[in-house]
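Case study 2.
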Amino acid sequence: MPTRRDMQAAVVAMLLGGWAGPAAAADLDRGPTGGQDTHATVPSADWSPGWFAGDAGDDWLLGNPLRLTPRPRATAVHRYPQGPPLEGDFPGRRLLLSFDDGPKPATTTRLLDILRREHVHAAFFVSAWRLATLPDCAAARRLVVRMAADGHAVGSHGYEHPHMNRMSDAKRLRQLVRAHQALLPLLGYAPTLFRPPYGLTTPELDRLLAFHGYTRVHWSYVGGEFNGRAAPYRVRTILRQMREREAEGRYPGGIVLLHDTHARTVDAVELLIRRLRAENCALLDAGDDDLWRFVEVSELLDPAGSPPGTGSVPAPPAVLAEARTWCAAHAAELPELYLLDGT
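Prediction:
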């Protein structure tokens, strides 16, 4: 006769999507690095709209998946549209700033101040261990709450920043669940955006993420943050990648990878925003209305699109008017900003 623990494990396995009974649930309890791997069978990825939806999907987003905590069915779920992994190459000069590994109070606080002042929204992929590790865990949790309040997208970066491409599905799930449990009480929902640590993935990990309603977010541009150089170098690095992509005839819109745990990165962010706004002044002078603009992740998950065969997405009239106003107000600074990349 099955024990009560066996019955509970079976229910947990059903909620988590067909995991292999009590053995799989027991493996979850051993943590991400302990015990024998249990490989789960996950269906092939299906990214059709609404595939991960309904009461079961809402329970994953709003409840504790290991405790089956009851919740009112009227509770609203904050979710982004589910879709294929975001890799970049978006039509139009649309950029998403994304930040990994935080929050770190000493640097993330200053970064959020800059983004608020510049009216730019970004995506933060949180390493959830920071929310439970002294001495900064309380301040880190407050920063996650502020990210959401300021209109930024909050995604999961796993719990311990492991090489998830080398893990079994059971250990990968453990990383997802622990991050889920850390972020859920701060946001009121569990993020559905996910970036694997180091950007390393496998087809099996992609299927697992899709099976549990996540959208993987990669990147297009990197800032060379780990070579110790100053902010202007990082801006030049990103600008060079953008120009190379356009010269190759590829869509320039994409995702910028940065890390909010480095002071030199925070220094570079404000400079990058100002340099691209200066670039818009040159584009306007040339009669080009496809301006560089910093967009929210939802625009890239459900892009407006462009005419077949073109990579141009004209900026909305309000964005064009704002760019002209900025150019007029900062005309004296433009020569200095253009010197950043040697132009």
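The longest helix spans residues 263-285.
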